[in-house]
Amino acid sequence: MKLLQNSGIPIYQQIADQLRADILAGKLKEGEYLPSIRGLAKDLKISVITTMKAYEQLEAEGLVTAAQGKGFYVNAQDSEMLKEQHMRKVEEALLEAIHAAEVAGMTNAQLQETLSALLNMEE
Fold this sequence. Notes:
2 domains, two-stranded antiparallel sheet, 5 helices
C-alpha cells in the first residue's frame, strides 16, 4: 500500500480508498480478513487511530464487518451494487475530466476526440 504524505488527501482516506478499490475489484474476496489494525499501522508507520478510522469508514459503507477479537473481514458484495459503484466512479472521473477540459479551453469535440483516442489505445 502506497501513501502520499503531501497529497492533500488524509492518510485514513488514502487507506480506505485503496482497500475499497481492492474489494470492488475482487482482489480482496468475501470473508477475507483485512490486515490487522496494529499490523497495518506498524507497516505504514502511522497511528493505530488513523488505521481504525479507515476501517470504520469501510464498515460504515457496508464493505467490511468487524469481528470481535478477529479484526475486519470483507462482506459479500452484491454484483449489481458493485456495478453501480463503479459507474458512479466513472461518472465522477468524467465530470472531473470535463471540468479540466473547460479550464484548458477544450471544445466538446476536442474532449470527445481525446476520449475516443484513449479508448482506442486500450484495444
